[in-house]
Amino acid sequence: MCIILCRYLAALLLLSLVALVAVGFALCVGSVSLSPAAVWRALTTDTGGLTSEVVLQIRLPRALSAFATGGLLALAGALLQVLLRNPLAEPYLLGVSGGAAVGALVVLATGLAGWWLQAAACLGATVSTALVFGLSRGKGAWDPLRLLLSGVVVAAGWGAMVSLLLAISPDTGLRGMLFWLMGDLGQAETPYVALYALAIGLLLAILLAPRLNILVHGELVATALGIHAERLRISLYLLSSMLTAIAVTEAGCIGFVGLIVPHLVRQLAGSDHRFLLPAATLLGGILLLIADTLARTIVAPRELPVGVITALLGVPVFLVLLQTPSASPRG
Which pTM was predicted? Predict the structure, then answer.
């Protein structure tokens, strides 16, 4: 047990170091390349120059937003895969992103942005969460299958509304709408809400981890060991929905991170959620940070939607994972 714990801690330390390197790389590269020494001076002593403004006002907030968003999506995906007992579950499956997209597109269609965009996306995600939860409860006991079906139907409804908004919106706003729908970190200015939410969400998830390790073996086993399975499932749904809503509000709809990362960690290290949850959070943040760095540098000074990069990276990785034996959340 001690050896396994040491290995887990070493792996988490390694992922943390990789995350720091990825942040440093993101601060150095861009339309104007900076040396590591220049970045260090901008962070520590030279706080009034142009380099400091580029690093502290533009690149650092965006890098932190990318890391926080990736971590939120990966953590939400890991929780949903336990909730639905399906290794292919991902954060956008239950319609949260659709509600956020409708709210954001309504604001973009009126020409507003900034906090209006984030507030509308958050409101839409909250409405979708409440709607899916209410439908999944029905008149009987809460059922994960009913939750999944309710989420799919609600997501389809939001998708229709998104198509309608795109069809009736003026041409001048379509580019911004499409960028947001494909994931856009270009407007990230205040990453601290997402970072705080990630820290709180990860803490709550880790506290639930021992019960999750039991829940994956089935509701009967969990109940026999004194776990209130329905209450735990509701907690998982609300927590994963909150994490997804904040991620979508921060950066738009970014696919594959919440699907690929938990699945990859489970394949490599097993299904012990005491390790899987923090490892997936770190790896998700690293993946999206690297993807965003590529999105803003490949065709600089122009930018690509970060969702395009995550899809290009995620599809081949997922196809490789499909060829290996599945490490299902069922244990």
Answer: 0.89
